[in-house]
């Protein structure tokens, strides 16, 4: 009979890795993360039954976990109460985390290149708690221009930035954003039917170009910055000001094309 081979200090049992993983399992956390990961791939959300089927979980497991995720605002329930989709809370948390800093760091060189070439200022906004927050801003190279102060909050309803942000969301997410909308100073109210028509036009064109609702003589041009799902994670806007002296600056159409190129560079959509 052969003697058993002595084990060494560095030898790892085949089941050691599995045992280690099993030792630190947190079933409730796993269920919650499974739901979040599943919903992150769904543009229109899922019913509770669809979530149960996809994850192979029973009704009581899914019900309790969904209720907690809704209560903590990581998941939102549709107006009819029958579908669940991700909220923007995870994205909002990222605002306070290095990934947002990396996004801004990546965006600034692109924005600066646009400003130099287009000879216009530009700013980047994200949705935050009922309106939009300016997270990056670059001035044009000229001696005068219009810029939006970094950290400012701008209207969700009456600005090109807000309308583009809303247009490129799922219907459920758009409803949620509109439900928690809070007006900023001077924001103009718009009827729901007018907004819905505007959203369809924006999605078809891929951007919005309109006279500013805040300042005379300014044409706002906005393109969405798209995330992996094809929904807007930010809006890139230039408040275009036309020169009327003898200096020949890039035209409105030229600047629109330039801004679209800049937004495309920053987007993470699969068609990029």
TrEMBL record:
From the UniProt entry, list the residue stretches annotated as the region Disordered. Answer: 1-24
Q: Which Gene3D superfamilies match?
A: 3.30.450.40, Winged helix-like DNA-binding domain superfamily/Winged helix DNA-binding domain
Stretches of the chain forming a coiled coil according to its record: none
Q: Does the keyword DNA-binding apply?
A: yes
What GO terms in the biological process aspect are recorded for it?
Answer: negative regulation of DNA-templated transcription
What terms describe the molecular function in GO for this protein? Answer: DNA binding; DNA-binding transcription factor activity
Locate the transmembrane regions by residue number: none
Q: Which key words are in the record?
A: DNA-binding, Transcription, Transcription regulation
**Residue ranges annotated for the IclR-ED domain, each copy included:** 89-272
Task: List the InterPro entries hit by this protein, alphabetically.
Answer: GAF-like_dom_sf, HTH_MetabolicPath_Reg, Tscrpt_reg_IclR_C, Tscrpt_reg_IclR_N, WH-like_DNA-bd_sf, WH_DNA-bd_sf
Keyword Transmembrane helix in the entry? The reply is no
Output compositional bias ranges, type Basic and acidic residues: 12-24
HTH iclR-type domain: residues covered: 26-88
This one is known as IclR family transcriptional regulator
